[in-house]
Amino acid sequence: MRETPRPRETSADSGPGLPQHRPGRAFAHAGADGSGTPHRSDGRPPHTPRGARRTDPAGHPGTTPPVPGWPAPFVSGVLGLLAVLFALITWQVAVEGPLLRLDERVGARLFERGPAALTQLFSDLGGMPVALPVLVCVLGYALWRRALGLAVCAALTMAAVPALVIPLKVATARQGPLTEAVNYYPSGHTATAAVAYGASALVLLALPRPAWLRGASWPRTWMTPVAAILLTTATGIGLVLHGYHWPLDVLASWCLGPLVLAPLGWVSCRSRRRSSSRTPSC
């Protein structure tokens, strides 16, 4: 008896079995040369190391995760708000407006409050003998890590502080509290602290983590900015409580600091993205 040939099964009636790769998807069964070697439709080998994958700014699956940070519109909005507030305070100081008189009443209630030794210590955090050596050490570390461009940008950012603050002091000629001396607006100590500690944090964030610290669990991405903010805040509080500056002098420098640091922040972000794309993810 002659056997009837069994018809070939199609993929629709094959029933349960091993999954088959479909052409036109991520994989194709044969290459362009017809060798039959599996390959990806985007030209990459089947198993691309994670560190060699292309970086997608949107962070889609299969790419190197983007460097964490605030969205650009949010940062631009905050900087714009700080610029408007700084301009408003400067205008009120220049014309001796109602905001200036309110500032003097508030300051008179805050002066010489708290332990004098502690407020003096906080005030000294913004002095050049304290804040500048911190930045110099960070810049030396950046040069040792061969980040010359980043170090130069941070140094120029620090140099911008006296270039901006001194003309404002002379133009406004505001009299200081508890003294007859003038040129107290804005606070130079607060601006120095904001830029010196802020620039140090931005430089450290931009540099790749040393090999011996890559396994550390402590989150450097938020510790250094928080430390810079705390040191700058403590400086301003100490200056007001000790009677060295009016509150608006300090508030204006708190607004000015991020504006001066904005170009360095952009450079730091770009350096972090380049370092992240070169370093394999864990």
UniProtKB/TrEMBL annotation:
Keywords: Membrane, Transmembrane, Transmembrane helix
Residues that span the membrane, as ranges: 74-94, 125-143, 150-168, 188-207, 227-245, 251-269
Source superkingdom: Bacteria
One Pfam entry name: PAP2
InterPro entries: PAP2/HPO, PAP2/HPO_sf
Start and end residues of each stretch annotated as Disordered: 1-68
Composition skew (Basic and acidic residues), residue ranges: 1-11
Name assigned to this protein: Phosphoesterase
Species in which this protein is naturally found: Streptomyces violaceoruber
